[in-house]
Structure formats: C-alpha cells, structure tokens
Amino acid sequence: MLEVIIKIHIIQYLIIFYKTIPPINQLLIKQLIIYEILIHTNINQIKMEVIISKDKQELGKKAAEKGASLIRKAILENGEANIIVATGASQFEMLTELVKEDIDWSKVTAFHLDEYIGIPDTHPASFRKYLKERFATIVPLKKFNYVNGDIDPKEECERLKKLINNISIDVTFLGIGENSHIAFNDPPADFETKEPYLVVQLDAASTAIGRRLVFHH
Q1: Distance CA 178, CA 24 (A)
Q2: Which of 121, 170, 193, 197 is an S-S bond match for 74, by CB 3.0 to 4.6 Å?
C-alpha cells in the first residue's frame, strides 16, 4: 500500500515519545538513529535530551508538558504556533495529556505526518479519524491541515507542500517505529529529498504495525 508522508527536515523542536521498551540496547539504537537524523537534516546543533520514565503514562505526560511549554513559548514570541502531530500506539498517552494543557489553541495550526492512500476518514485505519477522535475535535484549533488520502496523492502532496513551505514548524510530536521509521519513512529513508510530502511504499514491518493498530481499536 502507498502512503503520503512528511519529512522532518523542517522541524525546530522535536518531541520524541518512546514506547516502553525495556531492553537498553533498543534505546541506544534509537538514540543513534535520532543522532543520524539530526546530522542529515542539518539540525545537529540541537542537543538531544533523553528522558526515561517508569511507564508510558508518565512518559506521555512529560512529553505533553514539554511540548505544551514550547507551544506557549511560540505563541508568546510569534503570536501563533505551528505544530505537527503523529499517530500510532506511541501517541495515545501523550495526546490524552496534551488536550488537557492550558494553551490558546485558537492560535495553533496543526499538520499531521502521514495517511494511507485510498481509504476514507471513516475507516478504522485512517489517521485522520485517529486524530479527529483524540485531538483535532477536542481542542479549538485555528486550523488542522489533514492529509487527504481520498484524492490524487501527487496533487495532495503539492497542496500540502504549498501550505507547509511557507511556515516554520515550532513543535513536532512523533514516535519511532519498530523498524526505526519516522512517519512512513521506512529504512533506508531518502535524506536527500527536499520535498516535505512524498508518496512511498511501506515495508512489511510497517504494514504489520498498521494491522495491529487497527486491531487495537
């Protein structure tokens, strides 16, 4: 199946929300992956902060609090904030806490990372459905720019490109997949592209994760 994705070279602040993964070697591997991403996307000047929490509920709350503080800072400095939110099981606890934060959401414009092609937003696997239920209809955002998987994907990439290339992203909330993907950038990802949205082919690991997420719902 094909997907529409977003690259992360535009990110200024990156909130990584780890799932609870006990083996320390997996955490170290993910740290190295993030380091490589930062280098290849020309934001290697950002110092990575790693927070280890006792469980996913505590970590989700910490990620939401940190992200909320950066959103408020952007609003204070710029009069508005632009954010990107993600989907998947790693985001459940974070989104639950984020919608509770004291933020002037009327000054926040949101994008999301990716969407399956060819499914409506009523489909259980739709990321639009996921975000509407957990975030976009709960807080009074200035605007939420959905990735529409129902229309021509190349035209949708161009539409979103025009929107996102004219702004700066203040905060991005995302997780790292089991095969170390970010959005639907399955390894080996193309670090040279300058396109913010692309159409890509999923590998077996990501499709398996997607099936499990649908089953979870």
Answers
A1: 15
A2: 170
Which of 116, 39, 104, 100 minimizes the C-alpha distance to 78? Answer: 104
pTM of the shown model: 0.76
Task: For the chain, give every domain's residue range.
Answer: 2-202
> Over the Cα atoms of the chain, what is R_g?
16
The string of pLDDT tens digits covering residues 88-138 is: 888 999 999 999 999 999 999 999 989 999 889 999 989 999 999 999 999
Q: Over the stretch 196-213, which tens digit does the pLDDT of each residue have?
A: 888 887 766 555 544 433
Structure tokens at 172: 């991005």
Q: Is the confidence at residue 14, as pLDDT, over 50?
A: no
Asked if 72 and 169 count as a contact pair (C-beta separation under 8 A), the reply is no
Distances (CA, A) of 122 to 63, 117, 118, 158: 28, 13, 12, 24
Fold of the domain built from segment(s) 2-202? Rossmann fold (3.40.50)
Q: Which residues pair with 109 in a beta bridge?
A: 82, 143
Torsion angle, CA of 139/7/162/149, rounded to 10 degrees?
Answer: -70
